[in-house]
Design brief:
127 residues, Jelly Rolls, 5% helix, three-stranded antiparallel sheet
Amino acid sequence: MKITTKQEAINKRRKDGTNISYYLLDEYEVHDGWLVPGVVQPWHHHNLINETLFVTEGKALLHYLDGKKKVQREVVPGDLIRVENTPHTLSNPFSKTCRIIAFRFVPQNLDHSELIKNDKILDADLD
């Protein structure tokens, strides 16, 4: 087991007030982002990595391209967004900070869902 502390993460405070802690691991990256009220991220997309966003606090507006059409949708705690390579941005026009956990990885294009769902061995003798 390995624990990475917040002090060991790459902690960035952007000029727009966004705070992000990047936890860079060998096969994936997790980052903890805090979008302050009024922030608007630049439009971007990812070529090789896959990014999944999970909203944990507050709310934000997700902007993305659906074909050539710009779409806007409010995202709230519990929403999970699979970005893939879609051009996107987030903004926070609300009065409270929004917290989003991002998982970024290089996809292998393999379906591991059954393995993930069933790979749990109970250690009853440790109770």
